Amino acid sequence: MKILIVEDEKALSDSMVEYLDEEGHNCEAIYNYFDAIDKIGLYQYDCIVVDINLPDGNGLDLIRFIKKKSILMGVIIISALNSLENRIEGLEIGADNYLTKPFHLAELNAHLKSINRRVSYGGSNQIIMNEIKLIPDEHKAFVNDQEITLTKKEYELLLFFISNKNKVITKSGLAEYLWGDYMDLADSYDFIYTHIKNLRRKLLKEGCEDYIKTIYGLGYKFESN
Amino acid sequence: MRLLNKITLNLLSISLFIFLFGMVAFYYVLREQVDQNINLELEKRKKSITKELDSAHSTTNPTVNLSEKVLIAPLDKPRPLISFSDTLLFNPDENKYAIYRHLGFVKVIGDQSYFIQIFKPLEETDRLIVRIVMMMNLLIIIIIITLLIANRHSSRQDWKVFYDSIEKINNYDVNSFEAFSLKHSDIKEFADLNRVLLTMTERIKNDYLNLKEYIENASHEIQTPLAIINSKMELLLQWGDMKEKQYKIVADAYEASNRLSRLNKTLILLAKIENRQFPESNPVNPAIMINHQLESLEDLIISKKIKITKRFDDDVTILINPYLAEILLVNLIKNAVRHNITGGELIIELSKTRFEIANSGPPLQMDPEMLFKRFHKASSSPESLGLGLAIVQKICTLYGYKIGYSYKNEMHVMHVDFK
Predict the structure, then answer these.
(1) How far is residue B20 from each of residues A84, B144, B149, measured CA to CA in Å?
(2) Are A18 and B268 a contacting pair at CB < 8 A?
(3) Are both A155 and A216 inside the same structural domain?
């Protein structure tokens, strides 16, 4: 997937490019508003990751520009502004997601994956990873074509793992993905532990390989070759 | 106008007014008394005249009314030309002695000097004086009382502004968004005081807002470097060839910076609630939100074997910002699940006026007042920010809800009274 990253903080932009390139995306980093307008005019991108506060303009205007020109691409806003109004405004003008800084790269990646599925397959697709099959529209999960009953959180967890397979996923990243901001995360690691234990049990029961590796003191890794 | 001048002027105008009335009243009262007195004297004259007329036909000597009597006698010894004195004489009419004022003077008629004496009874006049004094006293007392009452009343009007200002300062809340205003006063001292108070509160408010803005800006600015730190460490963690010891170091640093960013986000949220940056309110159905939250905590509830009892009234809607409603309920529900014991109970009650959530657990080891304090933690877990209930309380304060805690039947009960 071809991604345009518009973020004026070079260090942050570099991190995103590095993480996403490793995931097989083709990222291009742009550091200001007008360069971004030029790029969008010249090339075709699948998705744009845009910061709201740019040195020479507003990221929201960039999104309005894209929508006005009817350019088809996924839009993810990353911003330090975290009010509901900003969020609503961003989503209303056509952004797919709104992430507040600081965010987890794994979460950005998961959102990009979901946009990728929508862009590439029109959303009505399946995610297949070895013996695991997910149907995102129906929130259904299968192992060896046998449906397994997952709670909402377990399903989200599995989707997140598969989106970030072979990556180290930290517990705090998981907690924030599952419960969002403003949750006092005390005991959340116990919650996560409970969720993962249950998820693993349900997967193994249907003969699924044990992909979920615990990295002591840090988090988890969904390992598949 | 100065306070002293105002008070003097008030007193002066009230006194003038009352004394004017008093004078008129005094005149009529006096007049009445004098009339009565004269009437009495006339009555006496009538009596004596009748007696005299009666006695004209009788042989007995007519009694002489001393007040009309003039005693003329040749001068027997040297006397002063004129002399006043009091004297006690027998009044045959009333058959008793009475006090008379007596005037004796010497008059020369021809070559013979005569000593002439005339009398005037004092009894009636005495009575009149006593009455007048009493009347005067009564009037003065009435005047003083009226003066006091009127003065108090007018002073109260003047001081009203002062007491109003005191009351308003006493209730002054720098966080309040209502404009601070004081009543106008035409008394210089009070107007000065109000002006000083207004300037002072304005300055305090400005300082406070500046400080708050500074903190907010700082919090926002911190977000970007934090985002860089977090992303770099996330990248670092993906390096497969790190030793476990190195992993541990990065992991600890990563956790700490994550905590910092969560803390920062939460503090920004608290500031926003304080600044009322969630103005729009919509009808919210808490029951739906509660069920939704319970669902998302389902796994934990099952693993802790918690028994849930729900008592919801039908069709409960409250007018609140949906986002804040969710934060409020999430924090309370999550708290109740977190601090529940294995096999414990969770009772949630919802009515139009009240939300109550109770969970089993051992009694608190601390002052319940401390529960709502920022950064106060019940558990020692480092992931807890200790801000959950502080947020809940801020939201309640914003909407004027009352939140309270109690411990009964071995259950912790948190309740929120809407209005």
Answers:
(1) 73, 13, 17
(2) no
(3) yes
A150 shares a domain with A108: no
Q: For A165-188, what is each residue's pLDDT tens digit?
A: 888 888 888 888 877 655 555 566
User: Does the beta-carbon distance from B261 to A102 stay under 8 Å?
Assistant: yes
Q: Could you check whether the bond before residue B322 is cis, i.e. omega within 30 degrees of 0?
A: no
Low-confidence residues of chain B: pLDDT under 50:
none
For residue A166, the enclosing domain spans: 127-222
User: How far apart are the CA of A73 and the nearest CA of chain B, in angstroms?
Assistant: 24
Looking at the fold, whether A135 and A73 belong to one and the same domain comes out as no
Q: Which residues of A touch B244 (CB under 8 A)?
A: 216
Residue A23, classed as helix, strand or coil, is coil
Q: Is the dihedral of CA B40, B44, B47, B53 positive or negative?
A: negative
Strand partners, A57: A54
Task: Assess contact for B384 and B331: CB atoms under 8 A.
Answer: no
Among residues A98, A121, A144, the one where a domain terminates is A121
Q: Which A residues 30-49 touch B at CB under 8 Å?
A: none
Q: What is the CATH number of the domain that holds A45?
A: 3.40.50.2300
Number of structural domains (chain A) is 2
On whether any CB of chain B is under 8 Å from the CB of A102, the answer is: yes
Q: Domain with A168 in it: what CATH number?
A: 1.10.10.10
pLDDT tens digits along B165-215: 899 889 888 877 778 888 888 888 888 999 999 999 999 989 988 988 888
Residues of B within 8 A of A84 (CB-CB) are: 278, 321, 323
Output the pLDDT for position B132.
85
Distance separating alpha carbons of residues A207 and B361, to the nearest angstrom: 40
pLDDT at position B174, please?
80
Same domain assignment for residues A98 and A148: no
B261 shares contact with chain A (CB less than 8 Å): yes
Q: Which residue, chain included where needed, has tokens 């069920």?
A: B291
The predicted pLDDT at position B358 comes to: 93
What residues in B contact A29, CB-CB < 8 Å?
Answer: none
Domains of chain B in start order, with CATH, are: 3-146 (no CATH), 188-274 (1.20.58), 282-417 (3.30.565.10)
Q: How far is CA B349 from CA B15, B284, B290, B338, B395, in A?
A: 67, 16, 10, 18, 19
Look at residues A101, A121, A141 and tell me which one is the last residue of a structural domain: A121
Mutate to test the interface with B, among A51, A168, A222, A225 (most CBs of B within 10 A): A168
